[in-house]
Design a protein that fits this description.
Number of strands: 2
Low-confidence stretches: 90-103
Helix content: over 70%
Radius of gyration: 20 Å
Strand content: under 5%
Number of helices: 8
Order of helices and strands: HHHEEHHHHH
Length: 237
């Protein structure tokens, strides 16, 4: 019974991956797959835990954690691929890049330019950022975040006696990385035509809402959908 459910869920995962890759479903299919995959992975792991526990009374349920983690990784990969593909759209046309000093310059956006813009505009909540700049900026954040967490994990394993200090330092660094991401989100929503009041409110709630809660995850999924809207989507004529 458990094996059959796991097999059925694996088929569902394959279908969602195909749905995310297929152009027939468009952005909606990608968003559904990105949101659902972590939950499906956790459910598959949970069913696996039930199957193993029925054969061993000493089994500690951990597969649901691994399944959820794998689902998050796959979801993150889909998110990066979706946004970076969007960043390649209309690459032949020029886009406006807003600098911290308020000047504007037309550039063809590349990853290096998006990387530089992400950090140069770390505390710049003015101006706009189109979907290309948002895609490269988010990819920069993910790469830096992953590398930093990996380094901290290695150091913590080698120096267990100072793990609490490393956790404090790592928390401060990750919090510092959230500021450029928050500024990028504000510029991105402004580029969609959203009013400043609603723009700041949505981003502040997303910044302070607990990421581990179901409500926080759903809220961030909705915010992600808004961040992926095209330029001028909410602009009133």
């Amino acid at each position: 019974m458990v094996f059959g459910l796991v097999l059925a869920l694996i088929v569902i995962v394959i279908f969602m991956l195909w749905m995310a890759h297929s152009s027939h479903f468009g952005l909606t299919g990608k968003i559904i797959a990105i949101i659902a995959l972590p939950f499906v992975g956790a459910i598959i792991g949970f069913l696996g835990d039930l199957g193993v526990a029925s054969q061993s009374v000493e089994w500690f349920p951990v597969l649901w954690l691994y399944g959820g983690f794998i689902g998050v990784i796959v979801s993150l990969i889909l998110l990066i691929v979706t946004i970076t593909r969007a960043s390649h759209e209309n690459t032949g046309s020029s886009v406006i890049v807003f600098n911290p000093d308020g000047t504007e310059g037309k550039l063809k956006v590349t990853f290096i330019q998006g990387w530089k813009s992400f950090f140069r505009n770390a505390v710049n909540f003015n101006g706009r950022a189109n979907l290309q700049m948002f895609g490269w900026g988010l990819l920069s954040y993910v790469i830096i975040n992953f590398i930093w967490c990996f380094i901290m994990g290695v150091i913590s394993g080698c120096l267990p006696n100072v793990s609490w200090l490393l956790m404090v330092v790592s928390g401060l660094v990750l919090l510092g990385l959230m500021i450029p991401l928050l500024a990028l989100n504000v510029r991105r929503l402004r580029d969609t035509g959203m009013k400043n009041g609603l723009n700041y409110t949505l981003n502040i709630i997303g910044f302070i809402s607990p990421i581990v809660s179901i409500i926080g995850m759903i809220y961030r999924a909705v915010l992600l959908v808004l961040l992926c809207m095209p330029t001028g989507k909410f602009q009133k004529e």
